[in-house]
Amino acid sequence: MADQSATGESKALQRTLRLPGVVLFGLSYIAPLGVLAIYGELDQLSQGTPSGAYLLATVAMLFTALSYGRMVTLYPVAGSAYTYVRRSIGNHVGFLVGWMAMLDYVLLPMVAWLLGAVFAASVTPAIPVSAWIVILITATTAVNIGGIVLAERMNYVLMAIQLAVLVIFAAMATHQVWTTSGPAALVSSEPFFRADVPLAITVAGASFAALSFLGFDAITTLSEETVGARKVMRRAILIVALFCGALFILVSYVTQLAHPGTTFKDPQSAVDEIALSVGGEFLKILFIAGILTTQAAGAVAMQTTVARLLYAMGRDGVLPGPFGYIHPKLKTPVFNLALVGTIGLLGVVMTVETATTFINFGAFVAFTFVNLSVIAHALRTARRRKAAGTAMWLLPAAIGAAATIWLLLNLGVYAHILGGVWCVAGIAYLAFMTRGFRRPPPDLAGEEEKAIPGEDSLI
Q1: What is the DSSP secondary structure assignment for residue 190, as one 8-state letter?
Q2: Where is the Amino acid permease/ SLC12A domain (predicted)?
């Protein structure tokens, strides 16, 4: 630790990532194959208009992606929403947003490990879920401690497998529709909108479908490990949001055509039923293998990004010193990676539903405040640009804020209660740290980059 403080070198993350690697981490975090894992529930909720729900969700998320692109250009550092809000709105609010975002970041790896363990145990009954959780946590943590380059290389392989499963599934579903109903049946508006389904139902489905996008923002936590972070990050976040939106719409479209209606034996495992009807046992087994790959790739990306968020907060003095530690040789936040792995062991006793409730609340709070950060920055620097330029900042951010607030309100009472309890705990910690709010939280001492008030480009 002494050498680390003396040189300052080991306190810095190495810049090795470029645009393809950053996009890959974003895709791994979102886990595109997950669109099939939640398809049954979404199809029932939207009453057979899953593609319309994904279309609306994609539009809503793109506005927030634009705001993330704005802010990462101004502050290309590891703190993501936490940093953007502190710089644009204020230290206390920024701390609370970072605190709420931790619900999303810290628990998502646990969910990935838990889901992966459940699927693994289903094909290896002799090994219980709890044992698989330990195995997956150990393997993922070892990869991430090895460094960002090792994690990036592993993600290339895992993402290739995952996308291949999606392509095979979509191709077989398309072939089934073609052979049973003819090529004309491949063109239909019903997966988007139906005359007998009120728009409000499709909109309610969009609120649920938006959960598939959680994680598109997480790549901004890799800013300090990315070459040319300002340009790369703003492009990468839009590419990830657009690509995933298009993929989700396409996959849900062909799935609805291949299995019209919303009747399933079990909505939570509807994709197994669909895969079996579309491609037999081969496709069902392939899908299980794809899900395992999805969870492995997702866990690597999720653990990587939360470790960087905790690093940023530890480096700034908001969290205790060990959180800001970087291993002098590996250049990775080893303490944070081990901590996230330890938290992942809660998967042995916690349900996916409980964890997901926390995750959604924290994510939508962070999305909302990133949009508000753009508005605050635009208003503060309005005199430096023309009225039209200011409007180009304000309008997309205002739409994004309205959309994410709407998503937040639609999470339900249980989510609001759990999220409220976590927020109160954060306020209590902030009050303790600032001696009753009489002094500001620790300053962002580790940030090397300053804002660029005149930066107006999006791409």
Answers
A1: T
A2: 23-406
* Separation CA 82–CA 91 (nearest Å): 9
Residues 6+ positions from 457 with CB-CB distance below 8 Å: 73
Q: Is the pTM of this model over 0.85?
A: no
Residue 371 is encoded by which pair of tokens?
């949009």
pLDDT at 443 over 70: no
Write the single-letter amino acid at 126: A
- pLDDT of 176 strictly over 80: yes
Instruction: List the one residue out of 351, 440, 327, 341 whose CA is nearest residue 90.
Output: 440
Report which of 451, 457, 459 is spatially closest to residue 373, judged by C-alpha positions: 451
The pLDDT of residue 427 is 93
Query: Which residues are registered as beta bridge partners of 226?
Result: 17
The fold of 18-259+267-433 is Amino acid/polyamine transporter I (1.20.1740)
- DSSP class of residue 320 equals -
pLDDT higher than threshold 50 for residue 223:
yes
**Contacts with 81 (C-beta within 8 Å, 6 or more apart), sequence order:** 97, 98, 101, 217, 366, 367, 369, 370, 373
Sign of CA dihedral 321, 107, 363, 143: positive
Strand partners, 17: 226
Q: What angle do CA 81, 101, 214 make, to 5 degrees?
A: 90
CA distances 14 to 9, 18, 37, 143, 328, Å, are 10, 12, 35, 17, 11
Q: What is the pLDDT of residue 402?
A: 92
Estimate to the nearest angstrom the gap between the alpha carbon of 386 and the chain centroid: 34
Cα 420 to Cα 246: distance, rounded to the nearest angstrom: 34
Give Cα 261 distance to the centre of its chain: 29
pLDDT bracket for residue 148 (50, 70, 90): low
Q: What is the pLDDT of residue 451?
A: 46
Q: What was the pLDDT predicted at 213?
A: 84
Q: Is 261 left (phi over 0), alpha (psi -120 to 50) or beta?
A: left
Q: At what angle do helices 352-380 and 387-409 cross, to 10 degrees?
A: 160
Give the integer Cα–Cα distance in Å for 224 and 309.
Answer: 11
pLDDT band at 444 (very low <50, low <70, confident <90, very high): very low
Helical segments of 124-198, H only: 129-145, 148-181
- Would you say 147 and 330 are in contact if contact means Cβ atoms under 8 Å apart? yes
What residues contact residue 450 under an 8 Å CB cut-off, 6+ apart?
none
